[in-house]
Amino acid sequence: MSTAGRSPEPCFSDQLEGWLSSDGPKTIGALSDVFAEKSFAVAILLLMLLPALPLPTGGVTHVFEVIAVLLAAQMILGRQTIWLPERFRDRSLGGLATDSVLPRVMRWVRLVERISRPRAAWLFDQGWVLRLLGLVLVAFAVAAALAPPFSGLDTLPALGAVGVCLAIITADALILVAGLVIGTGGILLIVTVGAALAHFVTRIV
Hints:
Number of helices: 9
Helix content: 55-70%
Radius of gyration: 18 Å
């Protein structure tokens, strides 16, 4: 069938911007209706954007990280649609995210879209790859949640999770590698700093 005359499919940043500016609810559950098969990656991306930024959040990021773990666990199980308890599914992303953080990071998303292209795109069509990436996202979200408070160390694993999600959305293996390197480096840094703090506390007690 000829595709002549069809409008090109809108890019992710345009879809996200349209969703943010719409009158609909800004909840995790609402994402499924807008982003369809990529709703898991989009939802985890939005949830991990806040801890990926060096901003005071009053602990709200821990709630987002818990939800991100639940969603990534469903990726491991191979689910096609998001399931969450109603109180999480209908939880608003909040004004801090939708009015402040997300509009500011839209330029990052657009930059990634400009440099991305389908590199090894077939990988992201493989169920086992998406399950493996779900496991990676669980690890990054847990690491961000367990990072020492007020240390800023949650930023790197959260940023790694954002990179992995962007790779799934853009089907770009190069962005995936960057996300894996950043997130893994963040986990190693958290472990190193945590071990040093534990050693210091042991010596002074």
